[in-house]
Specification:
homodimer; alpha/beta; 434 Repressor (Amino-terminal Domain); Rossmann fold; 3 domains; six-stranded parallel beta sheet; 14 helices; elongated; DNA-binding
DNA sequence: ACTACCCGCGAAACCGCTTTCACGGATTCA
DNA sequence: TGAATCCGTGAAAGCGGTTTCGCGGGTAGT
């Protein structure tokens, strides 16, 4: 499938009156070529509309120009606009740097199958993981020397470059906000506690209490799974066990919506009786009634940061983990 | 970056006692090799844990094993869970067939820039477009012989394989449903009418009226842009010009939500005073109050269909456009 | 003025797989 | 039995870049 007959080095070299080696040097930014000849090459390239064949280049150089983005094959993950947005940010940054994004939707369990092999065998120059749970494969690839970036905080403390939102700080300020509004009994509905993000958000919530000198009762801490349904279920349970509850911090907006649905159905007014804060600032936070007070994370920036971190690694530059700040968005629910 | 020293054909050939040509034949399913030798090759492959170098293979054969997915670089498009879900469906199907998905987020305007070149220059074996507006590039690539699939209905009637939801049928049944509920004055808030999907949904709405023998007044037809805000704005306008309106069909759920928000704020009860139907069955349709009656489209299936259509083309099989059925989901709003 | 170095540049090997071509032997047909 | 055909197979020529190696001329050092 070679739609167009494209010129090769041979042609460029001939019209520029130099050798193919020189063409290669010029096209790869080798400074050692005499300016005049370099110029002749550039003109030939321009004139003939030459574009490098990336495949041939990849074979010879060992660099494919491809970066894998590995996403858990859990629909609830990718159908979440969150990851879609992150991915588009990544893709844009990479594209600006002449790299392409290869999307890999893989079931977490199969990470030692085809995808793992693909990554291990040097057919991509690097990999960006959207990782929620285990990162065994990640550590393995790290050892192989494959440039990696993790979006989210890794579990293992192997020094793998990562980008993440300041989950702790966000949760902390959400909880403080509820306290500042006069809430005395604040529950938290966490995400899947197997994920570091959920843990960090819980820590932020705890820290806010600690600073106030009163740790929350254990039964105010409920482990959800980021779904609307789990938000509803845990709120029902909370209302049953703690009828005097007056604040809920949900670890994402969807669960916050579930909480509000149940609260209103139970005759509690939000925010008058119970105040609710979510996390993410997803679309629904704006469209819901009451509009949701929440912690905004800059998802596009997250993707771009991941892309930049990858570029930095490939260029052998210095880099360190990037933690993006969050912002409390006050709307109607708290 | 070659993490592992991998065996090559040379090694396989030697241990199997055959030539490299034979190894290639076996690995590419050429039937003409004697079963015994083929077996020896397979054993050698197994024993050495050999995996083909896709790059070298691509250079020699001209097939890269890469399929581009081109998405409009409009954040509101990709952050819409819709496209994320479609993409994951595509990716899964391709992966099952040994192909990989290269994500290309490109501004529509730049389609004759880098991305266009990339596609034109045979560095992917095919391209799947998520196309909303112009499809000039698509027609061009089609002429170049690049296998294409369009997700959504193309504007030009060049016979490009596409997959789409039955927008017409869905809109038709939504409108019929409103009529069946006793609505006499039904407005429609369309999507950007430059998109075929929006046009088809409008047609479905019109057809339902036509069948009933009474075409709607022109001023009941409002062109929105799929955003929450536009749903709100058009509903306000409708209430002003047609206070007796009793039904609204919004071309997506987000605009339907906007409509409901405005209606309730204006003291109209949904569904008692005004019934509202959306389109998509997005997450918000389930979480909103009142829960949204809407037209469900199977987004995952859409992605998988797109992937399958691509595979079919690459295999030179017969294929034709795929139109996926919709389903009316009755909840509370109508 | 002579040796030692450095520098820009081309020839050629090479990356790992695919594919054409032709050869030797077996089979078929007359 | 001889000529024509067919088959499985290996040698070798690519695919289109990258990179090593070494050459010839120019500069520097003494």
């Amino acid at each position: 499938m070679a739609p167009l007959a494209r010129p090769t080095y041979a042609v460029i070299a001939k019209t520029a009156g130099v050798s193919e080696a020189t063409v290669s040097r010029v096209l790869n930014g080798d400074e050692s070529v005499h300016p005049d000849r370099a110029q002749r090459v550039r003109e030939a390239v321009e004139e003939l509309g030459y574009k490098k064949n990336r495949v041939a280049s990849a074979l010879a150089s060992g660099r494919t120009g491809l970066i894998a983005v590995v996403i858990d094959d859990d629909l609830s993950v990718f159908s979440d606009p969150f990851w879609g947005t992150v991915t588009s940010g990544v893709s844009r940054v990479l594209q600006e740097n002449g790299l392409h994004t290869v999307l890999m939707v893989a079931p977490v369990g199969a990470l030692d199958g085809g995808v793992a092999h693909y990554l291990k065998s040097g057919e991509v120059d690097g990999a960006i993981f959207f990782v929620l749970h285990s990162d065994a494969l990640v550590s393995y690839l790290k050892k192989q020397g494959l440039p990696l970036v993790i979006t989210g905080t890794p579990h293992s403390n192997a020094d793998i470059p990562f980008v993440d939102t300041d989950n702790f700080g966000g949760a902390h300020s959400a909880t403080k906000h509820l306290m500042g509004q006069g809430c005395k009994k604040i529950a938290i509905i966490t995400g899947d506690i197997g994920t570091t993000a959920a843990k960090q958000r819980l820590d932020g919530y705890l820290q806010a209490h600690r600073e106030k000198g009163n740790l929350p009762i254990k039964s105010l801490i409920r482990e959800g799974d980021y779904s609307f349904e789990s938000g509803k279920a845990h709120t029902e349970a909370l209302l049953a066990s703690h009828p005097d509850i007056d604040g809920i911090f949900a670890s994402n907006d969807l669960m916050a919506m579930g909480a509000i649905t149940v609260l209103e159905r139970a005759g509690r007014s939000v925010p008058n009786d119970v105040r609710v804060v979510g996390f993410d600032d997803a679309l629904i936070a704006q469209t819901s009634r009451p509009a949701l007070t929440t912690i905004r994370q800059d998802v596009v920036a997250l993707g771009e940061a991941a892309g930049s971190l990858m570029i930095a690694q490939l260029n052998g530059q210095e880099f360190e983990p990037i933690i993006l700040p969050t912002e409390l968005i006050i709307r109607e629910s708290a």
